[in-house]
Amino acid sequence: MQTLRTAMPMNVESPQTASQIGNRPVAIDMRDLSLTFETADAPVVALSKVNLQVKAGEFVSLIGPSGCGKTTLMRVMADLERPTGGKITVNGLSPEQARLARAYGYVFQAPALYPWRSVRRNLMLPLEIMGVPREERETRAAQYLDMVGLKDFANKFPWQLSGGMQQRVSIARALSFEPKLLLMDEPFGALDEITRDHLNEQLLRLWEHTQKTVIFVTHSIPEAVFLSSRIVVMSPRPGRILEVIDCDLPAKRTLDVRETPQFLDIAHRVRLALRAGHSYDN
Amino acid sequence: MTTEALTRPVGLAATFGHLREGTALPVTVVLLVTIVAWYLGAIWLNSGLVEQKFEQTDKSATTAEFIDMAWSLDRPVLPAPHQVAIEFYDSVFTRDVTSPRSLVYHAYVTGSAAVVGFIFGTLLGIVLAVGIVSWRTLDRSLLPWIIASQTVPILAIAPMIIVVLGNVGLTGLMPKAVISMYLCFFPITIGMVKGLRSPDPLQLDLMRTYSANRNQVFWKLRWPASVAFLFTSLKVAIAISLVGAIVGELPTGAQAGLGARLLSGSYYGQTVQIWSALFMAALLGMALVAVVELAERLTLRRMGARP
Ligand SMILES: Nc1ncnc2c1ncn2[C@@H]1O[C@H](COP(=O)(O)OP(=O)(O)OP(=O)(O)O)[C@@H](O)[C@H]1O
Ligand SMILES: [Mg+2]
């Protein structure tokens, strides 16, 4: 596997720190955001008065019990779901305008590959739609496949890949058109520990060097702490934000940081917040 | 045999298992049973004619003579398989393929009309399906008419089509092709509507995140997703398109085509001719379906289907 340093175009200053992020523009602004699904029997309140501001270049993790509304929140940001209350802007635009401007790349919880396209052509799908010239499509596909370690599987079809490999293809697909904003819904959920560690590091380097804004859903506390600049802990239904935990581990950190007291302390605080949320339910 | 089976159960079971895996054994069994039943049926159904013959000659017949006569009548009610086989062989292999006495010629006349009608029907079926999927109003306004069109018996509508088209100077292949088209666009439309609607919400959401336009969603998602459905429909369509072409030859007393052979055969009581024409029609149908199946396999393999 290539490292991201060579895989990414280098329009990059020094890696960012929390203080630098402070005076950046707001990428996502949610005020009293609510969403209720009208179902056949009872209405389901998926989001209830969510307030969150994400600055450009931040890495924000959403963590919370299953069914608490993490996916729904991401879908609202992506204009795949309309909120029933409150306000949201993405890059200062409405979610729809942001979507039409192709402001974000979305990694779904499931791989969502097209079975009739080879891995390589699945990767090129967004590039085709966005009118990237053919040669450029090929090089980008090769570059990002290499990044997720699937160079040798370019001409395989999705059914010939394991679940985790399929998910890596879908990550590469979202990166391929180099969006400034990445919405990732449990992208590494289906991976083994080692591959996950590796991709965690890759993603962190990518983030440091491209200054993307990343919204990242995970169920793994260490993963959230390792990657994030802030961790948003959500409560079970109705989905609310319980606590936002700042996470200022040193820049250019490696996996070793997970042994440090600072890391363990943050992880502990996240766990406490999650536990507090759960007690609401019972 | 039974003792052998008891002493060598494993070997026999293995042999049977082997045969069961292929289609050879079931096909052979069905074929044998059919032929035996057919020969018996020929005796039974032709017995009246045979009795008449023997009454005319005032001779009493032995059973063997009776059966022999039942299987070799000139115009039997039900010809014996070998009579049909001989007639089929003669009219396929011993005659010039361009002569009206050759079944190959008639098969070509009917087959070409069926194929032209199939192509038109496929195009029409796809166009209708795309319309139905793309515009809500078409979904509600068109579909009931399409279904109603298929409840009209083709035998009632075929003569009208032929007369109307004849009036505007279209004769020969075209009217038959139109009847074929009329029959075979339907399964295509139904199959394609289902296929074009088959992408799941997630696949559609993905397109939405790229803010793909309608054309892109169609060509990069809906169309490829519908290809497997299309081929299933095409196999049904090509078979009924052949039926349509044959039916189209019946009402006008056409001179050429398998339908014409069936008609003239029944007019002159040439049952052997009817049956060999029927076999030709069956073979032609199987060949046409096989061609579609081949195209299906090649296409789906290119689209990454599991072997
Ligand atoms: N389309 C829908 N219609 C009705 N209810 C829905 C719909 N989508 C989600 N929900 C409900 O909204 C709630 C939040 O769902 P969501 O998918 O956002 O959870 P999640 O936090 O992503 O869970 P997980 O961690 O299991 O992925 C759930 O209770 C779910 O039943
Ligand atoms: Mg989810």
CATH fold name of the largest domain in chain A, please? Rossmann fold
Q: What can be said about the biggest beta sheet of chain A? A: 6 strands, mixed
Quick one: CATH superfamily of the largest domain in chain A? Answer: P-loop containing nucleotide triphosphate hydrolases
Helical coverage of chain B, percent range: over 70%
H/E topology pattern of chain A: HHEEEHEHEHHHEHEHEEH
Q: Which hetero compounds are present in the coordinates?
A: adenosine-5'-triphosphate, magnesium ion
**What is the total domain count of chain B?**
2
Overview of the molecule:
- The complex is a heterodimer of chains A (282) and B (307).
- Chain A is an alpha/beta fold.
- Chain A has 2 domains: 18-103 and 180-277, P-loop containing nucleotide triphosphate hydrolases (Rossmann fold); 115-178, no CATH class.
- Chain A is built from 10 helices and 9 strands.
- Chain A has helices at residues 4-7, 18-21, 70-77, 95-100, 119-129, 134-147, 163-176, 193-210, 221-227, 261-281; strands at residues 26-37, 44-55, 59-63, 85-90, 104-107, 181-185, 213-217, 230-234, 241-246.
- In chain A, the strands form 2 sheets. Chain A has a 6-stranded mixed β-sheet with strand order 5-6-7-3-8-9, with helices on both faces. In chain A, strands 2-1-4 form a 3-stranded antiparallel β-sheet.
- In chain A, helix 5 packs across helix 6 (134-147), helix 6 packs across helix 7 and helix 9 packs across helix 10.
- By secondary structure, chain B is mainly alpha-helical.
- Chain B folds into 2 domains: 3-78, no CATH class; 103-302, MetI-like (MetI-like fold).
- Chain B has helices spanning 2-7, 9-21, 24-57, 63-70, 81-93, 103-134, 136-151, 154-167, 173-196, 201-209, 214-249, 258-267, 271-302.
- The longest helix of chain B is centred in the C-terminal third of the chain and has 36 residues, at 214-249.
- The radius of gyration of chain B is 26 Å and the shape is elongated.
- Chain B starts with a helix and ends in a 5-residue tail after the last helix.
- Mean pLDDT of chain B is 88; it is low at 1-9.
- Classes of the chains: A alpha/beta (282), B mainly alpha (307).
- The interface between A and B is medium-sized, with 26 and 19 residues.
- The structure holds adenosine-5'-triphosphate and magnesium ion.
- Adenosine-5'-triphosphate is lined by residues 37, 39, 44, 46, 66-72, 109, 237 of chain A.
